[in-house]
Amino acid sequence: MKKNLGSVPAVYPMPVLIVAAYDENGKVNAMNAAWGMICSMDKIALFIDEDHKTTQNLLKSRAFTVSLADKAHMDVADFFGIATGNTMTDKFERTGYTAVKSEFVNAPVIDEFPVVMECELAEVVDTESFYCIVGKIVNTSAEEDILDEEGKVDPARLEALVFDQFRLGYYVVGEKAGQAWDAGAHLMDK
């Protein structure tokens, strides 16, 4: 029997995304964003507040990167979520991490995170219900040690973090449970 929990955002898992952009002086700012998703084969949607320093920076530069946080870098990923660049001017520098300018967009690529999408600002959707940044993915790069023999990202090697909205925890994904477009194929013949 199910128990009523009230109005709870019960979507699990939520990705742990690190969004990074330059300010007008070329300074790196990064934030942790769990409310984001792919919305097209070449687009990503980030449901983030307009008042974040990173949001303000990407609106000005019209470019940003989105990295997948992983288990090995959980502490910094969490720090990017609890510290604000609006009041902590050395937020990125405190981590000791390195960033290089993307070859494809005017945004920083944080070296330590294993997968990064380099994006141009495509659209801002501002309604009464939500504020959304849509980015056009221009390039995605990944560390070679997390790629399989076919050159694709191996989730088991990646150890991507996911956010638990229920208990506010981080978990790692990676165990394969089945093959998409195959696990339910037997039901097509009924």
Description:
The structure is a single chain. The protein is an alpha+beta fold and 190 residues long. It is 14% helix and 35% strand. It contains 4 helices and 12 strands. It has helices at 53-61, 74-82, 91-95, 155-158, and strands at residues 14-15, 17-22, 28-33, 36-40, 43-46, 63-68, 99-101, 108-110, 115-126, 131-142, 161-164, 169-172. It has a 7-stranded antiparallel β-sheet with strand order 3-2-6-9-10-5-4. Strands 1-11-12 form a 3-stranded antiparallel β-sheet, with no helix packed on it. A hairpin with a 4-residue loop joins strand 11 and strand 12 (169-172). It starts with 13 loop residues before the first strand and ends in an 18-residue tail after the last strand. The model has no long low-confidence stretch (mean pLDDT 95).
Helix fraction, binned, reads 10-25%
Compute the number of strand runs: 12
DSSP strand (E) fraction?
Answer: 35-45%
Residue runs with pLDDT of under 50 for 5 or more positions = none
Distance between the termini: 30 Å
- Number of helical regions: 4
Tell me the overall shape. Answer: globular
Provide the succession of SSEs. Answer: EEEEEHEHHEEEEHEE
Q: What composes the largest sheet?
A: 7 strands, antiparallel
Main sheet: strand order: 3-2-6-9-10-5-4
Given the helix and strand composition, which structural class is it?
alpha+beta
Radius of gyration: 18 Å
Q: What's the pLDDT, averaged over the residues?
A: 95
Question: How would you describe this structure in keywords?
Answer:
three-stranded antiparallel beta sheet, 4 helices, globular, 14% helix, alpha+beta, seven-stranded antiparallel beta sheet, 190 residues, single chain, 12 strands
